[in-house]
Every structure is written in structure tokens, then in C-alpha cells.
Write a structure and sequence with these properties.
The protein is elongated and about 80 Å long. The protein has 368 residues and is α+β, with helices and mostly antiparallel strands. It folds into two domains: 129 residues, Endonuclease III, domain 1; 131 residues, Alpha-Beta Complex (Nucleoside Triphosphate Pyrophosphohydrolase), CATH 3.90.79. It is built from 14 helices and seven strands. Bound molecules: iron/sulfur cluster. Iron/sulfur cluster binds next to helix 9 and helix 12.
Length: 368
């Protein structure tokens, strides 16, 4: 049984919240003009990203891609390079596709119509609602993880916030408390409250809406929000070959599917048994690259979604009589590139780390 916010107090609640927000909000770059493009990019970038990191990526992105047209006309590889480090690269590819459609269908203007937004790749309910309310001021409440946490405590919701009943109750209450014509400040205030005050370790003594907080009154703040069952971490092992030919190294481009689609990496495989070097050697032979001996050059551990990946890298110097080429792999998906220029390619984080460690090319990252 969920308890709705008390009737007749929504106005006072909003007034306290807004006063706090005006005095305490962080000067985030997309809050300067609340331009629809800025709101869109920031919302996509901030998914699964810490705010500080998101701001620095946003500023760098805006420097290179100041408007929708500049995204639409850029090659995908450059988009991915500027996204590198944020992870979840599918978001970047979908954003690129959406930018092209916005230019083609809407003359470069981000739509202010819900159906038109939802027809764009990568824009779901949440992002569409964020753009409509924060950029265009439409009366729609949005509930990200911060807002869910605030409401789970404010209303002392004793069910997992990601499950349908609590989820829809939170959205219904958030919408009911929205004062008409103030969606931008309302949504931003609640998100900011969740980010700065109603954090994992809540600062209830500084909270502008403490007087309405059921969890605070009942002493349940520490057990709200209720978490659902988490899926277990899956360990994954991969092996990759660093095939060096003179001053160059062989890389291949992944196909567009999956977490790192469209990015460049050192050829390799997911391993299924303990003999990872043997599995890698078989894989290379299959590609016409039977280049033993392989020498272990290091490993990188990388966590993503519910996976813990341990990627092993093996070094192999190809002799001058053995030009490295992957049989059966289209020419546009393989390259022999000078080691010093690896920084110009978009690469998954674990490949980037080993490249930086072994070839010391950090300074060239994102250059050019
Ligand atoms: S009183 Fe504490 S728990 Fe309640 S909304 Fe404020 S910060 Fe969150």
C-alpha cells in the first residue's frame, strides 16, 4: 500500500523546493540556456556517468559539435572517438543516427512533439520527456534515479522502485505535484535534490522538504529506496593479439552490434577454457595469422553492466616476410596503423589502456 503526498500541500512543497534550487543549484553548462540540443546531449551523456565526468565530456563535445548539424555531418568514427571513455557506445551511434534524421526531417530543429521525438533512434520515454519539459517547458514530470530516490523516501515506498507498481506510483505522484508552467525548474529541482541532498547517505538536516518526508519521520531513510534483486556478476575472459609489423600494429573494426560496435580493437576472442593462449593461437590460425610465439604482455580488468572482463593481451612480432592480414575480414574492417597513431582511433577502454601502457600514446588521444 503506497501513501500519496498529502492533498493541498503541493504548492508549499514546490515553493520550498524551488527556493532551495535557486540558491543551491550547480552551474551546469546546459543550464545556461536550456537549449534543446544541450538538454538532449546532456541527458544521453549522463546516463550511467558521474556528473563531473559528464560535464567535462559535454564541454569537449560541444567544442567539436556545437549543433545538431555538426553531429549529423561527422563520420561515425569521430563520434565514437569523442564518446570514448563514456562507455555504452550504442548510445553514441544512435545519437548520430538521430542527428541525421533531425536534419533531414526537421531541418535541424529538435522536435517539440512527443511522437516525433520517440520516432528518433535512441530516444525513449525518459529522454523525450526530459527534452519536452526541461527544454520546451511542457508540463511533464520526469523521474530519473535521483527523483526515484527522493520519492521513495518522501512517500516511504516499501517496494522495489524499479518494479512496475512503485515505478508507476512515483511517476503518478511526481506528475500530480508538478505546478503548471514550471516543469523545467520542478524537474531540475528534484533531480538536484536527489544528487546533492537526498543522496545514498541522505543529508536530511539540510533538506528543504524534510517536513513532508515519511521515511525521515519513520526512521526508514537508510532502507529506502528498496532495491530489487540484482543479477549476479558474470566473469568473462578474452585474449587479444598485438601483432606488430615494424612500427605498426594490426587492428580490426568491430561490426555495429554489441557494446563496442564500430570501435577498433586488437583482434581477439572470448575464451572458454584455461588455455587462453592456445585458444588465441587457434583463432589467429583461422584468420591466416599463425604467428607464434605469442608473449603475454599484460591484462586489463574492465567492468561493464553485470560483467567483469579480464582481457589478456599477447604480443607477437610479425617478421618482414609475414605481412599481417586477416583472411575473410573485409579490408575496411582491418588496418595496419603506426603504434604512435592508435590515439586517433575510437577504442574500447580495455584496448585503450593496454595501448597507452605499451605504446605510450596518451598524448595523441582524440587528436586530429
Ligand atoms: S528528509 Fe532526508 S530522506 Fe527525506 S527527502 Fe529529504 S534528504 Fe531525502
Amino acid at each position: 500500500m503506497f501513501h500519496p503526498f498529502p492533498a493541498g500541500q503541493a504548492e508549499e512543497f514546490a515553493s520550498r523546493l524551488f527556493a532551495w534550487f535557486k540558491a543551491s543549484m550547480r552551474p551546469l553548462p546546459w543550464r545556461i540556456r536550456y537549449d534543446p540540443y544541450d538538454v538532449w546531449i546532456s541527458e544521453i551523456m549522463l546516463q550511467q556517468t558521474q556528473m563531473e565526468r559528464g560535464v567535462s565530456f559535454f564541454l569537449r563535445w560541444k567544442d567539436r559539435f556545437p549543433c545538431v548539424e555538426s553531429v549529423a555531418s561527422a563520420p561515425e568514427e569521430e563520434i565514437l572517438r569523442y564518446w570514448e571513455g563514456l562507455g555504452y557506445y550504442r548510445r553514441a551511434r544512435l545519437l548520430h543516427a538521430a542527428a541525421k534524421l533531425i536534419v533531414d526531417r526537421h531541418g535541424g530543429r529538435i522536435p517539440d512533439d512527443r511522437d516525433e521525438l520517440l520516432a528518433l533512434p535512441g530516444l525513449g520515454d525518459y529522454t523525450a520527456n526530459a527534452i519536452l519539459s526541461i527544454a520546451y517547458g511542457q508540463d511533464i514530470a520526469v523521474a530519473d534515479a535521483n527523483v526515484e530516490r527522493v520519492f521513495s523516501r518522501l512517500l516511504d515506498i516499501d517496494a522495489p522502485v524499479k518494479d512496475a507498481p512503485a515505478r508507476s506510483f512515483i511517476r503518478q505522484e511526481a506528475q500530480r505535484l508538478l505546478p503548471c508552467g514550471n516543469a523545467r525548474i520542478y524537474n531540475q529541482s528534484l533531480m538536484e535534490l536527489g544528487a546533492l541532498i537526498c543522496k545514498k547517505h541522505a543529508l536530511c538536516g539540510q533538506c528543504p522538504v524534510q517536513g513532508w518526508c515519511l521515511a525521515n519521520q519513520r526512521g526508514t531513510v537508510k532502507v529506502r529506496p528498496v532495491q530489487g534483486t540484482r543479477s549476479a556478476i558474470e566473469n568473462v575472459v578474452s585474449a587479444h593479439a598485438l601483432i606488430i609489423y615494424g612500427n605498426s600494429i594490426l587492428v580490426h573494426k568491430r561490426d555495429d552490434a554489441g557494446s563496442w560496435g564500430g570501435m577498433w580493437e586488437f583482434p581477439g576472442i572470448i575464451c572458454h577454457g584455461p588455455d587462453i593462449m592456445g585458444e588465441l593461437a587457434d583463432f589467429l590460425e583461422h584468420l591466416g595469422l599463425s604467428m607464434v610465439p605469442l608473449q603475454h604482455a599484460g591484462h586489463i580488468t574492465h567492468n561493464y553492466t553485470n560483467h567483469r572482463l579480464t582481457a589478456h593481451f599477447f604480443r607477437c612480432e610479425a617478421g618482414h616476410s609475414c605481412f599481417p592480414h586477416m583472411e575473410g575480414m573485409p579490408p575496411e574492417r582491418q588496418r595496419l596503423i603506426p603504434c604512435a597513431e592508435l590515439g586517433s582511433l575510437a577504442m574500447p577502454a580495455h584496448h585503450r589502456k593496454i595501448a597507452e601502457r605499451l605504446f605510450n600514446q596518451t598524448a595523441r588521444r582524440n587528436a586530429g
